Amino acid sequence: MIYTVQVKVMPLKDLLDPQGKAVMGGLKNLGITNVADVRIGKHIDLQVEAATKEEAVAIAEEATKKLLANAVMEYFEIEVKERLTS
Amino acid sequence: MIYTVQVKVMPLKDLLDPQGKAVMGGLKNLGITNVADVRIGKHIDLQVEAATKEEAVAIAEEATKKLLANAVMEYFEIEVKERLTS
């Protein structure tokens, strides 16, 4: 069975996010002033082959901890979105 | 009222995603072989000041079309996640 697992990797809330600050400056220059804060991270879609949903999440978590996220600077959230046909 | 709006910006499905391909190679080198495909995009959290949820979405959509996403190469999804206190 193939599961679509979505991983969201964001900069830790206590850290500065220079990319987000740059985007906020850009929005102000475009005349969009209602945005109070911007934070930018990564969104990763994984197609995981696994027998169960739990196994798919475990594989995605291993992949995220080993490669996709840097725990010193980022936190992550994992969500299984849908089940595709086998 | 401040709304937290989440914007997901992903490479179009028909286009190659070199970053995703590189991560897939990295996962194989780490011994994680159950991942069939990886696609990587951006996740953006906006704090939007608006009177209604619909207005918040409209502002986020304008910001995304003007600055955050490149419609030639990317598609986006907008989701209002929660309502914070004013």
Q: How many helices of chain A?
A: 2
**CATH fold-type name of chain A:** Mth169, Chain: A
Globally, the shape of chain A reads elongated
Mean pLDDT of chain A: 93
Find the biggest chain interface. A-B, 33 and 33 residues
Brief write-up:
2 copies of one chain form a homodimer. Chain A has 86 residues and is an alpha+beta fold. Chain A has helices spanning 18-29, 53-68, and strands spanning 2-11, 35-49, 74-83.
Which key phrases capture this entry?
homodimer, 86 residues, alpha+beta, Mth169, Chain: A, 3-stranded antiparallel beta sheet, 2 helices, 3 strands
Overview of the structural elements:
The structure is a homodimer of 86-residue chains. By secondary structure, chain A is of the alpha+beta class. Chain A has a single domain, classed as 2-Layer Sandwich (Mth169, Chain: A). Chain A has 2 helices and 3 strands, in the order βαβαβ. Chain A has helices at residues 18-29, 53-68, and strands at residues 2-11, 35-49, 74-83. A 3-stranded antiparallel β-sheet of chain A has the order 2-1-3.
